[in-house]
Each structure stands twice: as structure tokens, then as C-alpha cells.
Design brief:
Radius of gyration: 19 Å
CATH topology of the largest domain: Rossmann fold
CATH class of the largest domain: Alpha Beta
Strand content: 15-25%
Distance between the termini: 38 Å
Number of domains: 2
Largest sheet: 4 strands, parallel
């Protein structure tokens, strides 16, 4: 039976690494197949060790699911490149590659649960939600966060759902909070669009606490939970049956987006991954 390989980006935050490990264990109890997980950079266990464990157990085909919310550079380039290197290291190894997790109704439900943990439903009508993503140099990835924000807004009785990013894209968290304030929100809930704890979610919370001029509450990240496991199992099954319907209509590698025309048809150049000694390009 085809094993599940969870591909994470990695974090220097120990709590985030531990949460990833617990999530891998949760999936091991859910699926009747071998499950392994690893990171492409920043923290252990490295992806190469996870692949080696499955290969050593006799597996020659794996279903790889990227644990990312949007299809930015890591999902489009770095993770496939890392998996290609593993094929070169392990004769006979093949893999199917799944699509990112969001936006998805399950994620919207989990975000709503995190919102409800800090906001009484009776307060929704005069509350703004600021959905904060990681931020990317890929406009398609940033647009996916905006799409998730709009889907979260629809039908839930919230005053508004605005979008901000903690790095590489705008508006920043302080700018997003100020926009909500100027639009007249009585209170603002900062909702991190992140899977697990880490350096960037901590930065989001810190910037939210530092904002003055409005009541600001900060919700938790999605985290290790059954709902997230349900979604990963769905993505795993997609890879097995070939039903991967990634929307590439706005991908900068396929169409000439203003300001990104030079990326059309460009080869992928993954950046340096310290845990993979075969890759020597500098940042």
C-alpha cells in the first residue's frame, strides 16, 4: 500500500517542530499505511531521512502531500525539487505529488473554530477579522489568501474580513489593523492563516498586541487536530487516484502577470537548503 509522505517547510521554533511531529503521529493512527514526515529546511527531521525510512521499509512509490496552505515557491519549486533529488538517491523510487491544502471548506471551518475561541458569536456583527498570511513574492499565492478571507466572510455575519501579510507582501499587519480601525470596526480579531506555531505566527501575535487605537484579540493557529488530518487524508487520496485539480490560471510561470513577466516559462531554481548537502546554491 502506498505510504503517505508529509512534506513540511521547517521552522526554527521548537513548538512548531513538536506540533508537526504530533500531527504525523495522528495520521499514523488514522491510516492503514506507513506515514513519514520531514522538512525541506531549518529543522529536523529532514525530508531525506523520512524518504530513506520509507525506502528502507521496501516502498518504491510514495504519495507526497505538501503541508502548505498556498502554492507559493516552496510548493511549486522547492518541494518538488527535493523529491526529485530523492528519486536520484533511491533507485526505482517514484512519487505522486499532491496539491496545497487551501482554500478548502474544512480550513474555513477550522478558522471559524479558532475565531469562536476568542469571540462570542453575538459580537460578530461589529467585529473585523484580519486574516494574516505568511506573504510571498508570488502574487497567485497572495491572492489565495485573499480568496480564503472572502470565503470566510461570506455568510458568517462578520462586519468584514480583511487580509494582511507578515512578510514579503502588503498590507503588513499594522497596516491591516489600521485599515480595519478606519473602517469603523468596534474590535478586531487577528486570525493567523498558519498551520502550526512558529517564528512568523509569533511575530503576528506580537504586532497585534502592539497595536493601539482599537480592541485587538489574537486567535490561535490551526494546529494539530482531526479536521486538519481529514483534509490531508483527502489530499493523499487525490494523489493515489490522479484527481489533482490545481488551479494554475494565474500562475506567474504560465501567464505574464504585470511586473512578473520574466518568470513565464522560467526553470525552477530552489534556494539553499542546509539540511540537503547536495544543494549548494546560495540564497
Amino acid at each position: 500500500m502506498t505510504p503517505l509522505l508529509l512534506v513540511g517547510h521547517g521552522t526554527r521554533d521548537e513548538a512548531g517542530v513538536a506540533e508537526f511531529g504530533r500531527f504525523v503521529e495522528r495520521l499514523r493512527t488514522r491510516l492503514p499505511v506507513d506515514v513519514a514526515g520531514g522538512f525541506i529546511e531549518l529543522s529536523a527531521p529532514p525530508l531525506t531521512d523520512a524518504v530513506a525510512s520509507l525506502y528502507g521499509a521496501g516502498h518504491r512509490r510514495v504519495a507526497a502531500v505538501p503541508l502548505v496552505l498556498v502554492a507559493a515557491g516552496h510548493a511549486k519549486g522547492d518541494m518538488p525539487a527535493a523529491l526529485t533529488r530523492e528519486r536520484q538517491r533511491h533507485p526505482g523510487l517514484t512519487y505522486s505529488y499532491g496539491r496545497p491544502l487551501g482554500p478548502h471548506p474544512t480550513l474555513l471551518r477550522l478558522l471559524e473554530e479558532r475565531l469562536d475561541a476568542v469571540l462570542d458569536p453575538a459580537e460578530r456583527a461589529d467585529t473585523a477579522v484580519l486574516l494574516v498570511g505568511r506573504g510571498s513574492s508570488d502574487p497567485d499565492a497572495n491572492a489565495e489568501v485573499c480568496k480564503a478571507a472572502r470565503l470566510l466572510w461570506e455568510g458568517r455575519g462578520l462586519a468584514m474580513v480583511e487580509t494582511a501579510f507578515v512578510s514579503l507582501a502588503w498590507p503588513s499587519v499594522p497596516e491591516g489593523l489600521e485599515r480595519c480601525r478606519r473602517l469603523g470596526a468596534a474590535r478586531i480579531v487577528v486570525l493567523p492563516y498558519f498551520l502550526f506555531p512558529g517564528v512568523l505566527p509569533d511575530r503576528v501575535a506580537s504586532e497585534a498586541r502592539a497595536f493601539e487605537g482599537a480592541e485587538v484579540r489574537c486567535a490561535e493557529v490551526i494546529g494539530d487536530c482531526d479536521g486538519l488530518a481529514d483534509l490531508v487524508v483527502e489530499r493523499y487520496e487525490e494523489t493515489l487516484h490522479g484527481d489533482i485539480r490545481m488551479n494554475c490560471d494565474a500562475c506567474v510561470y504560465r501567464i505574464a502577470m504585470p511586473g512578473f513577466e520574466d518568470r513565464v516559462g522560467a526553470p525552477q531554481q530552489p534556494h539553499h537548503h542546509p539540511d540537503d548537502p547536495s544543494h549548494v546554491h546560495a540564497h
